[in-house]
Amino acid sequence: MMLGVENFITFLVTATFFVMIPGMDTVFVLNKSISQGRKSGIVSAMGINTGVLTHTCLSALGLSVLIAKSAIAFMVIKYVGAVYLVYIGVKKYRDTSVLAIENNTETVKNNTKNDFWAGFFTNSLNPKVALFFLAFFPQFITPSKLEDPIPFVLLGLTFATIGVVWYVLLTLFASTFSNKIKSAPNSGKWLNKISGFIFVLMGLQIAFG
Question: Half-sphere exposure of residue 90, counting CA atoms within 13 Å on the CB side?
Fold first, then answer.
């Protein structure tokens, strides 16, 4: 037992299993990696797992319990997240620009910044992640330490680290197809439409799932 955490090895194995199960975050990272390349996928993965730390902090402070008990708070966060994803999807779907490998440093910087925040908000505004942490983390925390934020933070950092490693591996795999897809005629328009459609579906999944 360390710092209030029990069965840490079991947590590592279980958390890795959960991270590897294909879900909304996986689709998000793969979508960014294939349509925009390796750097976009990696930055998106960083944003998603920073969102994990947001939920970790909420759990540590006990705010997730309040969200779980308050139907209004839960619904507000849920629908704000859904609307955000649908907005991104519609915007992407209507984008008729052609994909290209960016050489302009400022453009790349702005794009990666947007990718990070898109990943961050996608995860942070999903209240189901907070509920998952509330159900999962306490199983590996000493009962007498459940009100101590340190075990939650330690488990959250571990979970986020596993997520970064896994999504970066996915990105490296998926981005190998990026340049080939970009070189195809009209690939940009089709990828934008597919990406937009995926984002809208993700938003609807949060809203009605």
Answer: 8
Q: How far apart are CA 203 and CA 119, in angstroms?
A: 13
Q: 91: how many CB neighbours lie within 10 A of its CB?
A: 12
pLDDT per position as a tens digit, 166-183: 999 989 888 777 666 656
DSSP secondary structure letters along 41-70: HHHHHHHHHHHHHHHHHHHHHTHHHHHHH-
Q: Are 44 and 29 in contact (CB under 8 A)?
A: yes
155 HSE (CA, 13 A, CB side) = 36
CB count, 10 Å around CB of 10?
11
CA 80 to chain centre: 16
Q: Say how far apart CA 140 and CA 6 lie, in whole Å.
A: 5
pLDDT in tens, 95-131: 665 444 444 444 445 567 788 988 898 888 777 777 7
Half-sphere exposure (CA, 13 Å, Cβ side) for 163?
Answer: 28
Whether the pTM exceeds 0.85: the reply is no
